[in-house]
Design brief:
The complex is a heterodimer of chains A (about 100) and B (about 160). Chain A is built from three helices and no strands. Chain A has about 100 residues and is mostly helical. Chain A has one domain: Orthogonal Bundle (Helix Hairpins). In chain A, α2 runs antiparallel to α3. The longest helix of chain A is centred in the last third of the chain and has 31 residues. Chain A starts with 6 loop residues before the first helix and ends in a 13-residue tail after the last helix. Chain B folds into two domains: about 80 residues, Four Helix Bundle (Hemerythrin (Met), subunit A) (Up-down Bundle), CATH 1.20.120.1200; about 45 residues, no CATH class. Chain B is about 70% helix and about 0% strand. In chain B, α1 runs antiparallel to α2 and α2 packs antiparallel against α3. The chains are: A mainly alpha (about 100), B mainly alpha (about 160). At the A-B interface, α1, α2 and α3 of A face α1, α2, α3, α4 and α5 of B.
């Protein structure tokens, strides 16, 4: 199935996804949408790992284990980030990064 | 097959970062993650695709949707960034993407004709708890401590204070 697909295409798809995530990270103002952009970035890196593993070194499993660990780190990061977001919402009643200037003055 | 999955990934990624309704953005992110799991199935990493479906699509998206429901009104539209900010961000992202794609296209990836290794669950489990060569016991333990610390930290942070 994937034999006809060269590695380059996987890498290009992952690159586009990564930079769409970067764009969202720079443009969005809501904290939860920024978190979703980070998930996009991590996911594109996972695609890179898996494609390199399967196409260049099909007898090893390193890329797969790194992907598993990245998924676990993403889960930990999302849970802590959402706890922080809920805490901020409870104190300031919004989660807009441009309106959060409590600690500025 | 690859074309369908990659088209779904690209289109719904763009919709995720441009949609003005936050719940729709979360749903589009779910489509992106499911299409990624499809790519893993295509590459015959069945266990990894199952992890992707249950943990990402099942766990993280549900967490994000719960927090959206807790922190914002449904149907409320997000205010967009200014044109200047959008333009600067687009130029930065496009510049980086072009540089990366040029580098990828200039590089030749030599494919060694090796036999495909098996990826059954028994082998994965033995590698994860193996301390020798190609063993991942140390990262496994470190990641379990990290998950425990993240769990405790999330509970402490989101707990209601008495003051």
């Amino acid at each position: 199935m994937f034999e006809g697909v060269p590695l380059t295409w996987f890498l290009i798809v992952a690159t586009l996804m990564f930079f769409i995530g970067i764009y969202g990270f720079l443009v969005r103002k809501n904290l939860i949408t920024i978190l979703m952009s980070i998930e996009l970035i991590l996911n594109s890196v996972n695609i890179n790992f898996v494609a390199f593993n399967k196409i260049l070194y099909p007898d090893h499993l390193e890329g797969m284990f790194f992907t598993i660990f990245v998924i676990a780190v993403a889960a930990a990061e999302a849970s802590v980030a959402i706890a922080i977001i809920i805490n901020i919402y409870r104190r300031l009643i919004n989660i807009d990064v441009e309106k959060m200037n409590e600690m500025k003055y | 097959m690859f074309t369908i999955f990659s088209a779904v990934i690209i289109i719904f990624s763009v919709l995720t970062v441009t949609s003005r309704r936050i719940l729709r953005a979360a749903t589009f992110l779910l489509f992106v993650l499911v299409a990624t799991a499809g790519l893993y199935f295509m590459l015959r990493f069945n266990f990894l695709a199952a992890i992707q479906l249950t943990l990402y699509a099942g766990g993280i998206i549900v967490l994000i949707i719960f927090s959206i429901l807790l922190t914002s009104q449904i149907g409320q539209k997000l205010d967009t960034a200014t044109w200047k900010k959008k333009l600067v961000a687009f130029i930065a992202a496009a510049f980086g993407a072009v540089i990366c794609i040029i580098t990828i296209l200039a590089n030749k990836f030599p494919v060694e004709a090796t036999s495909a290794g098996s990826t059954n669950v028994r082998l994965i489990g033995q590698s994860l708890l193996n301390t020798g060569k190609y063993g991942y016991a140390l990262p496994f333990e470190v990641i379990s401590i990290l998950l425990l610390a993240a769990m405790i930290g999330a509970i402490v942070l989101a707990k209601k204070r008495k003051d």
